[in-house]
Design brief:
Layout: H1 2-15, H2 19-43, H3 63-82, H4 87-110, H5 116-140
Amino acid sequence: FIILAFLILAFFLFKKRRKKAMMAVLLTLIGSGLFIYLLKIIFNRERPFGCPSGKDCFSFPSGHATIAFYFYGMLFYLINRFTKLKKTTVFSLGLFFGLLICLISLSRIYFGLHYPTDIIGGFFLGGVFLLIVAILIDFLYQ
């Protein structure tokens, strides 16, 4: 889903002549994916109920939590950065994206795929990449 959502976002940014923002988002999305993979190998932490699929057996950090925090946070940031919306609309969007991030993350715990600390680590990593993309876009569009 995130790949499709990113492609739609990239098309939108390209059409709106925000190519620098599109490249910043692409680079930080790839970077976050690489860091998730690297940290899973470094920490080598087993999932709570073992390996369900045989291919991704490590749980820390949660890739779903990382990408959800990064992607929806970045989407919220881009909407605020490049559009003029009413404060109530911005609040509603923030609430919606925050709820979506929480539901995705809680589902990972509910299905026994992650420990709560995996989710917290994913939020931290997603937040780092969200901060990087926000600083990079602000720098590029000064």
